[in-house]
Request: fold
Amino acid sequence: MPAAAIRIRQTPPVLRVVSERAPDAQRGETTLILSLKHGGTHEVRLRWETRGAAHLPVVAVLGGISANRHVAASHAYPERGWFEAQADARWLAAHRVVSFDWVGSDGALDAPIDTVDQAAALAAVLDVLGIDTLDAIIGCSYGAMVGLAFATAHPARVQHLIAIAGAHRPHPFASAWRALQRNVVALGQLQCDEAQGLSLARQLALLSYRTPEEFGVRFDATPILESGSARCASEAWLAERGAAWAQKTSATAFVRLSESIDLHDLLPSHVRVPTTLVAFAEDRLVPPDDIRALAAGIAAPVRLQVLHSPYGHDGFLKEPEAIAQVLARALDCCEEACA
Amino acid sequence: MPAAAIRIRQTPPVLRVVSERAPDAQRGETTLILSLKHGGTHEVRLRWETRGAAHLPVVAVLGGISANRHVAASHAYPERGWFEAQADARWLAAHRVVSFDWVGSDGALDAPIDTVDQAAALAAVLDVLGIDTLDAIIGCSYGAMVGLAFATAHPARVQHLIAIAGAHRPHPFASAWRALQRNVVALGQLQCDEAQGLSLARQLALLSYRTPEEFGVRFDATPILESGSARCASEAWLAERGAAWAQKTSATAFVRLSESIDLHDLLPSHVRVPTTLVAFAEDRLVPPDDIRALAAGIAAPVRLQVLHSPYGHDGFLKEPEAIAQVLARALDCCEEACA
Reply:
């Protein structure tokens, strides 16, 4: 990494960069000093990844709090990425993709993290990579919130924001739901069963990501009695998903990233970047009305698309074709606008 | 209690009755042998209460799983009842009201309880009281399910069923929600904090009883940071409600009554009693569509009223005037039909 590529512009000071470069991808770790909005100054290690040749237009892809830097497979890193299904091969071939593991996702930082801090971290990653301006940010769920925070703090560094299933603030009902998840994690820790606390918190989260419509079709069976207790049709699936997730997740990481969603609080009018917003009509976590309010307030051209999905909030993961279409259209528009 | 008043009609055998009678009310305990649908034969102590003179037409009033036999204040038992606000003075004065504490609500019965078992218990209470036929059952939430079970098992013993916010079966999404609540209680029981497990389960239940609309207005504030953690606007209210409820609730009672809702499974076509159904459009626990399906299937005259309430499922408690109107109209109709 040539030193000349590092440009600091009101972004956090970088201490160290370690990276490995392959023909079609690059991974690295950047250690930097981050002044958290709520939580003091911390030394943080950022893990980032890029995919695609350096001369291509750059798009940052940011997912939910459980997502990571590996967006899509490359020759260098061939495992499937979390955005693989949505990442249409055409635009993937035409762009360099940047992403990073969320600040706090390794569980090493036990302090209140804000989406503004994640935006500062993205700016630091771009500095390290010598990327001045992003063609676009594609942010889903938490990633949409971070995209909005980045567009607010660095309007000159992104030409187009595509924010899917995220708004400028959390809905109070969703906040209550998440607060209970964090309290269930705390109960698990108190009871010396952190894994079960995490698993139940994840299962609660799943209920907020999905919809009654999906459950009505998928788990339409009377409960069975097992050892004298009723087991509902969805319980085995929920427990399996919860346990698998608990195994790979640090309690601190979950609590701090969950909390980060509740601390997220931006003014729509401070977003001055052309924006494409996507809402799912059935989303119970981020109600479409909140995204409509965001759309009405943004101080730049906005397009709002309301999609339908029986998967509600999880539509950003479970409706890859619809998302791929949105992206193809939005990124084309962006390129036309930039031409 | 004169022995002649005891009439057994395919209802459980009564072992003992102890009761105290006042001019305008009566309370008693009946010990009986109950053959549970799923859980074998058990000796169960039923606690019941009546209010109003013996010659008046009799209405059974049944509430949610947290309700009890004390429906409304009398001279004998002057404390406020759980249905006080909904119980219009006119119809209260014109009826004798019967209710009972749910089988399992004392925590003494640790076995799967079905709504069919509660219906058998109600029949036993009526036998003990010498009541052949009820003018009406007013059932709310769990009470609506028990009312449907009673109408199915004893169509000749009730002339009119008023079932508010209850259906013939639970919705699979609501079942998943309740199953998680029971699992949170189990987590609390692991070591030594049953109260916190119960409190969190209740808080989760509250989220299912209420609506995002209510929370959006009521808890519209950014979180505050307390000892380095975010506290959302609703957390204090939820924690207070959860703790107060946990203090007065047995874990076994909660788990078995919660489970009882999920075991509830009736055929609408087996209900052959004139029925008034009430749904709340915003009810996320008992979706109006499920009550519409019930209405379509009942083999008797049915009236369905869909009310609106920002309190969702809890509308049966939080919209006393609307409920009082429904009752006045429904009970008038019933009396006309019987005249």
